[in-house]
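Teaching assistant here, posting this on the class forum so everyone can see the example we discussed in section. The complex has four components, and the goal was to see what a joint structure prediction looks like when all of them are supplied at once.
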Amino acid sequence: MSTTRLLILGLVRWVQPVHGYDVRRELLSWHADEWANVAPGSIYHALKKLAQEGLLREVATEQVGARPARTRYEITEAGEREFQTLLRRYWWEYRQPIDPFFAAFAFLPALGQREAVAALRNRARNLRGHAEFVRTAIDRGGFDGNEPPHTFELFRLMMARSETEAQWCDEVADLVAAGDLPTDAVAAAPRPQSSNIQT
Amino acid sequence: MSTTRLLILGLVRWVQPVHGYDVRRELLSWHADEWANVAPGSIYHALKKLAQEGLLREVATEQVGARPARTRYEITEAGEREFQTLLRRYWWEYRQPIDPFFAAFAFLPALGQREAVAALRNRARNLRGHAEFVRTAIDRGGFDGNEPPHTFELFRLMMARSETEAQWCDEVADLVAAGDLPTDAVAAAPRPQSSNIQT
DNA sequence: AGCGTAATACTCAAATTTGAATGCCAGATG
DNA sequence: CATCTGGCATTCAAATTTGAGTATTACGCT
């Protein structure tokens, strides 16, 4: 299930009463656009949906000049309960994130050996660059300094992941360079019958 | 953008002519349900959409008894070009995957210290368990043996990630246990003004 | 032969997500 | 003081995703 519900519910709870734009501002300041669905539409949709379900309450709608009116929300009793439930679900259940690179890698054989090696090395560079960027940002006390300390741990996790993955990329690049993995497939091979779907 | 397009296009290209159910079968055999959107509806939708865009072509519709007719698809010239484009995009562009746990962790302060530590340790266990499961499955030559070798590298990546993340969980659990990270927040603190949104 | 379970194959309404588009206001620039 | 840029605040149609639902056949078991 979607992460957006938890994010919006939790954020409203945290900074209430808030309106959509502020929610988005806050989420972007968390760099949440890199790891969650925070397109404007998603936020406004979630806000309305949650209100409609009685988990949020419209508190006020202000208007400045002729700009679109802002609707501020706050969390309700029911919302608080739902938040606790969702929070626990995501803390206790493990689900692998959806990673677009997996899909790409599955089609390694469709790529040329040269390009595969180059792309993997490039990816390793990107990943290390990303890690380095996060590291220096942390070290130099970037991030305006208002962030609660657990935010840094989140960044540390990103760094650790990036480094692990970078190393994997280099190892696989070596394998591909050595010709140990299939590349340059021209035509499709006949595939064996795959196994069944279990309900 | 969605990974499903690439996955379906590539799979049809690989095993054509195929029908939806087979595509799903194959994807599940790759355990793709763990890292991509492969609900039945997604697959049939993508198939129809791609056909409508002229990237796939309906090749035949067979019928066995009174069961729903199967429509087999194959890739077109245009589809092949699109596949190459998408493949390259995903190989060369780095995008962080969307991870539901990040959202959960962002609300660490809303959790009790006790529970946070327990959940983190539990997550570490889960992650190590997952890694171990994959490892033994590989070692014992699980996975029916028809998988191309690069599939194993994908599993190795999953393992490496799981281990990295498990270690992080333990470290953070220690920090939380030591009281170095905020937990048990009761009320919301007033937040400072966050920065602006750049277009 | 009859029964239950599982596999086959897809549909559809509902929910979610995207991101371009809209339009206003404030401050800087020339 | 006219214009341009960029921040504010949301809407909306279109695209995607979900997953339960439908209905048929194959297979093993008693």
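For the discussion questions: Residues 153 and 159 of chain B are 10 Å apart (CA to CA). The radius of gyration of chain B is 23 Å. Think about how each of these relates to the inputs above.
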